[in-house]
Design goal:
about 150 residues, three-stranded antiparallel beta sheet, about 10% strand, single chain, Arc Repressor Mutant, subunit A, mainly alpha
C-alpha cells in the first residue's frame, strides 16, 4: 500500500517520466556520462558532438528540466554538473523492476520444478496422448491416411 498524497505521487511519476524521456536519447545519456566525471561547460560539450551549439543547449535544457543536471554561470560560461541523487532515484526504480522480474523468474523455476513431481500436483503443460479405439495391431486403411 502506498501512503501519500495523490498530488505528490503524481508529481513523482511526472518527474520520473521526464527523467526516462531525457535518458532515452543517446546524446543526452552521453552528456550525463561526461558531467558525472566532472563539471563541463556547455561550450566544451558542444565541441564533442556533430551538431550546433544551440542543439547541445537544448539537450542540456531537457536534462535540466528532468533534474538530471544543473547549470551554473561562471563568467561567460554555463557549467553543467550531474545530479547524482536524481540518477540514484532512477537506479532505485530500475532495481525495483529488476526485483519484480527476478521474483517472477524464480516463481517460474519453482513451477517448472514442480512439474516433474510424480504426484501430478503442480503439473504444467503435460501432454497426454488421446486414446484410440482400435487395437495397436490394427493398421490404418488407405482412407484413414487421407
Amino acid at each position: 500500500m502506498v501512503v501519500g498524497k495523490p498530488e505528490a505521487l503524481a508529481e513523482d511519476a511526472d518527474r520520473m517520466d521526464r527523467r526516462f524521456q531525457a535518458l532515452a536519447d543517446p546524446t543526452r545519456r552521453d552528456i550525463v556520462r561526461l558531467v558525472l566525471a566532472g563539471e563541463r561547460s556547455v561550450s566544451a560539450l558542444a565541441q564533442r558532438y556533430p551538431m550546433s551549439f544551440a542543439a547541445v543547449q537544448k539537450h542540456v535544457a531537457v536534462l535540466e528540466r528532468a533534474e538530471l543536471v544543473h547549470k551554473r554561470r561562471q563568467g561567460r560560461e554555463q557549467l553543467v554538473r550531474a545530479d547524482i541523487e536524481a540518477l540514484r532515484a532512477v537506479n532505485r526504480l530500475l532495481d525495483r523492476y529488476e526485483a519484480i522480474w527476478r521474483s517472477r523468474i524464480d516463481r517460474m523455476g519453482e513451477i517448472l520444478a514442480g512439474s516433474e513431481a510424480p504426484t501430478g500436483r503442480g503439473v504444467v503443460g503435460r501432454v497426454v496422448a488421446p486414446e484410440h479405439p482400435r487395437e495397436p495391431s490394427e493398421s490404418p486403411s488407405k482412407e484413414e491416411h487421407r
